Amino acid sequence: MIGGGTGSFIGNVHRMVAAIDGQIELVCGAFSSNPSTSKSSGKALLLPEDRAYGSFEEMILKEKELDAKTRMDFVAVVTPNFMHFAPVKMALENGFHVVCDKPVSFNLEEAIELKKIIEKSGMEFALTHNYTEYPMVKQAKKLIEDGALGNLRKIIVEYSQGWLATKLEDSGQKQAAWRVDPKRSGAGGAIGDIGTHAENLAEYISGLKITELCADLTTFVEGRLLDDDANILLHFEGGAKGILHTSQICVGEENNLNIRIYGEKAGIEWHQQEPNSLRVTYLDKPYEVHRTGSAGISDYSNGVTRIPAGHPEGYLEAFGTIYKKFATVLQKLEAGETPTTEDYDYPGIEEGIRGMLFIDKVIESSNAGQQWVKMEL
Amino acid sequence: MIGGGTGSFIGNVHRMVAAIDGQIELVCGAFSSNPSTSKSSGKALLLPEDRAYGSFEEMILKEKELDAKTRMDFVAVVTPNFMHFAPVKMALENGFHVVCDKPVSFNLEEAIELKKIIEKSGMEFALTHNYTEYPMVKQAKKLIEDGALGNLRKIIVEYSQGWLATKLEDSGQKQAAWRVDPKRSGAGGAIGDIGTHAENLAEYISGLKITELCADLTTFVEGRLLDDDANILLHFEGGAKGILHTSQICVGEENNLNIRIYGEKAGIEWHQQEPNSLRVTYLDKPYEVHRTGSAGISDYSNGVTRIPAGHPEGYLEAFGTIYKKFATVLQKLEAGETPTTEDYDYPGIEEGIRGMLFIDKVIESSNAGQQWVKMEL
Amino acid sequence: MIGGGTGSFIGNVHRMVAAIDGQIELVCGAFSSNPSTSKSSGKALLLPEDRAYGSFEEMILKEKELDAKTRMDFVAVVTPNFMHFAPVKMALENGFHVVCDKPVSFNLEEAIELKKIIEKSGMEFALTHNYTEYPMVKQAKKLIEDGALGNLRKIIVEYSQGWLATKLEDSGQKQAAWRVDPKRSGAGGAIGDIGTHAENLAEYISGLKITELCADLTTFVEGRLLDDDANILLHFEGGAKGILHTSQICVGEENNLNIRIYGEKAGIEWHQQEPNSLRVTYLDKPYEVHRTGSAGISDYSNGVTRIPAGHPEGYLEAFGTIYKKFATVLQKLEAGETPTTEDYDYPGIEEGIRGMLFIDKVIESSNAGQQWVKMEL
Amino acid sequence: MIGGGTGSFIGNVHRMVAAIDGQIELVCGAFSSNPSTSKSSGKALLLPEDRAYGSFEEMILKEKELDAKTRMDFVAVVTPNFMHFAPVKMALENGFHVVCDKPVSFNLEEAIELKKIIEKSGMEFALTHNYTEYPMVKQAKKLIEDGALGNLRKIIVEYSQGWLATKLEDSGQKQAAWRVDPKRSGAGGAIGDIGTHAENLAEYISGLKITELCADLTTFVEGRLLDDDANILLHFEGGAKGILHTSQICVGEENNLNIRIYGEKAGIEWHQQEPNSLRVTYLDKPYEVHRTGSAGISDYSNGVTRIPAGHPEGYLEAFGTIYKKFATVLQKLEAGETPTTEDYDYPGIEEGIRGMLFIDKVIESSNAGQQWVKMEL
Could you give the number of structural domains in chain C? Predict the structure, then answer.
């Protein structure tokens, strides 16, 4: 693991979720750019002293020297955005597969460059746009693929939080500080931190790409350097229209990612905070609520369910599914087998590039006086 | 009553809600442009034969001749949009107060003209933007007026329906037929029929006017002449930003009007379909659910509540509140008293003009390639 | 109307709900046992002075003298429980139909006696167990009648309130005062005031009668003379088992009447506070939510719906349905027609006797050390 | 681990949840009474061949021989109920700490005997009544301990499922088969499998013990040998009254464990299927919804929260908290430190005995014609 030292939010998440399914073991880490922090984090994580490294460069080079059985099988990169590119690149080029936190890079150029590096390296790469992995997200995607909704017409996706409604970054809160700093976070504030999840979710479930957008970015908290709110009109392939709105100043909202999609024949509605229910509406009969693991759910959805219906599965489980599938892919490759399409059903560099493109285009639109721009490279 | 013959939806609503509080009695009507339909409607409504008139002109002139105790006290106009102006004008000019269904007129010019007529006539005028009359809408407005939210930052308002997701107007359904006909409905489809309610609700609760907007109108159902879907970015006075989206093709949505407003210190959320709950979110404590007539509710809100908490009040009760207040105003005026601000707390011609302006500007924006336009006369 | 003077809760409810459908007009009343209160109430209700009577006896006798067109068509009795029997009896015996608030009488003996009087009089009688009249209650009943649930197994019905969690009766609150007074309320406290609604609802929807019960009554608020809480085990005809619990000390509960019924094949769940939704669960497919007036709802349920789906109908509308049907029955009888079974689908004396029997048996069981007792006359 | 071979539900759960926090590693197992199944399960779990044992006896004896660093630190017993006692006893007597699935034993006698064995052994013992470990359960318990509810009056606890509404055990479903078999499950069906969770939750949150009960057990599915439904009246210490109902024939219910507790001043409501919300109701102000990890939550509750508010935590996380605390206790003991009260805040043998006593008393009451019985040893 690179990044994710003591006190890290997302590093701890990656460790918990990688462990759930008993297929992955944390064997080494460069947990901080500060070598002593890295060492103490390693100790707290019960690692042998010699596998908590002082830098990611050291880790990659030393692990490479170890025998195949001992050395790490892949690297998880969980640093702030500006520190994704270098370790991902170096890991890939030294023959390690990579799981990378989102957004994939500091800017679009890096993302495009990474794609080339991945292709050249032949290594596997996963990007933790974790929200696509909930069982009811899979169910929604499956219903749409199977034509249950008919042609899609309208997509409304939202990702609202309230934790940055005040100037939290001035209080020394570490999570807030780097997210609102353009040097560490990149050009997008809320739009990068959480807006890309919404964009990814909408494209994933609908199977449609955004073709153009008109964005209205705002920074409500005085003195903040990046956007903390965005309202965006969307056009999708095939004529569907939509709205994406995201914010970190919606007082009282925790992690309110939700989506609705309406087609000619039916509609779906899903809320991340109550993720085990999927509302399905129809033209001519009462609406249904599809429930994780319950009667009438597709095999595709059940494939990412771990426990029986009514035992709520949450954020960590969904997140862990990326690791679980990634481990399956690596095991199959090692065993000389070919992973299936379903094994590979997790986000990768293409989703990463879409995310970075989205950030760029949203900012371009907003800066141009909220004009429509095409979402293309 | 003018319009609202047998089979009418909104005419029947007006009759039920006017009756609830025991202050208003239906005494006469011109229920249809077809005299024999008007007569038979009158009979079904237990009216004396001579007070079901063949035309609104006849009604206004004949009622005017009756003695003050017998003749109608005011006129309710519940015809399709294109038939609002003429009867409202004639009633006012002949000394009758008027309650008019929304939108106030066929186009903006008529609305502006009506304002002049009202002022000249000295008569009272109410417009049935009924959704502002729910107790929890009043509670939300009061919280904002009292500063509980601080300066407002974001307003998200939606009015979605699904009943026009197919080409219902071709099936002979009368309600659908006139609403999608530009000759009877006006320039707006969904945007006029329900979008104006959303616009009115947002401005009413927030106390802020929309200053400019960028609209993306769509007609999804092939062959339909008016919009059936709209996604709109909003700017409000004082720097608040927002989204208004409305649709009649959201399969499975019934009458999903809802609003959220976030300020610096707190937020509110209200859903018309479960109107007796108001979620109030805070920066630093658990969210609350304010409930109609329950502990902790303002006198202002309780003033429009009829029964104890937990006995759900619905659409008809809220609608009836306009009639109740209108009756109070007329009674006080008749008694030589001055109605209070609270007595007059119902929509009138100003709200009607805002609604017509909104329709015009949305269409102007959308037709100009979804550009920003100022929302001003 | 007998009872229901100024400040009355239920009297005002009866007046509002009787008016909604435009079939019933308040023409006279004896609104209080205090003649001057009755007079002033009549004035406030816009009645002619000579039809606000000083006593119910006076009203019945004088109205009887009026010509058929002028005199009242029926009497609504909305007094506290101990004052039901005398006016109902006198009205019936003088040729007036009667609508009576629940519970039907002060004790079981009176209820049995009333049945005889009704039969002898040939007059119509309705009892306002209003909660059976919600559209989604009708939908639930219909599903069960049609066999959608199969044989019923388990019924859980609850009616919880919190308004008597403190000794409100000592504060001079009139509604509280008579309800906890055995001389005015009868032998039951919560069990009579609201428990009978729960019993009635369970028997109505299920179509099954309670055969025996085991009750645990409690008075939690010190110094109160009647029960304010009850937990009851139930056995129904056909082997179904159940629970009825009711309370007026459940802090924060408003008017939480809800019911669930599980059969061999499906289940239903309904909550009075959100009355327009009915959850229907199945063995082998996702659960559905049936919505008032929406797609897939039975004609039987739609027959008591007044407005389109998504326009919430509430307590007053459901209550008004009893009056609406009662008016239909009277109109048909007057016209020499035979009312249909559906016209007569409102509670009457049989439901009244069941309610009084229930109160008696619950108290008998609880007093005997919470033993099982048969629920039979 | 003892039990929990391939295809096991609860064994897999124990493995996932033990792994989440990175403190516990599966090192060996006797996964089945069939040695070859045990071996193949071990292989699937990536264990070395020599640590997948043919029987629990073999495992305990051989592990005991290993050096302290290598051998297992504790044993997790996840067999069906009838196979709890022997391995737990042997593990304890051979110096291993034990985590045991619930109910603790096949019958009450075994549970009492186990208590003596635990005390004599000096080993640590945890029982996985996992539902007490949700953050919002802790929050509810804390509110009550702090007096926010005042004296408690009413407790309503339910645990309903629908998966045994048909005779699933005849279909070869392994989970169903042993649960309805008195030889493997014990004297209780639903009452043992899930009713004990409800009993445990009610006593845990309220801090009150059940003193007597009156139970109505039913077997609805023909030919089944154990109860599949129970309705129970409860009396608690201090005068609180309550209801516990549990069922496995409530068609469409998944894992509907929920509880409400009303005191003199406030009330709480919690639902396991949406575990991150806790409703708190008050006498004199709007109700609140407390949310896992969100503003206004106690340190005690936050102590079992792993991720920020709005990232839903579920069943596995709550279950894992028992393992996390158990590991903390063992680590502290090993380090010569004294675990805190909060470290020990997980269920143990006392809760196990209460559960077995509850099963016995429920059956005794029901068999005696649903009479009241004291819940004491």
Answer: 2
